[in-house]
Amino acid sequence: MSARHHRLLLDTSIYIRYLRDGVPAWVADDHAIVERCVLTWVVAAELYAGTRNADEKRWIDDLCRWHQALGTLSHPGPKSWLEAGLLIGRYRRIYGDLRMADHFRDLLIALEASRHDATFFTENTDDFVRWRKLFRSTGRTLKLGNLQEMSD
Fold first, then answer.
1. For residue 29, what are the domain limits?
2. β-pairing verdict for 8-10 and 37-40
């Protein structure tokens, strides 16, 4: 699959920005991009947790149905849950303490991006650059995308 056609996985922050500000518009308007996206249940759950009104909930309902129909609704399996815990333990040994609750879901999302060989887009790039380094140490890859490039 060429770089222009490989899978994408969007972090919760990207969808929230679209819901609140309508940007980046390609999140919903560019069907060629939407069809390349994988939606993980972890992101969907975070989106539902942050809904502010019935319109947002309906949009997320539609998003989940769309990905279900496309076969691109994904969930981390048991090995991913354990691997997330192992990565947090490794991070603590190398870099010092961190709160598991602040990073566990992020790791599950990143592991899904890696499993699908998808480029991961987030507004929280700094944390994921660190996780990408740890992924490499375990033989995994985490491809991080640039939002500006997608908007051009």
1. 8-151
2. parallel
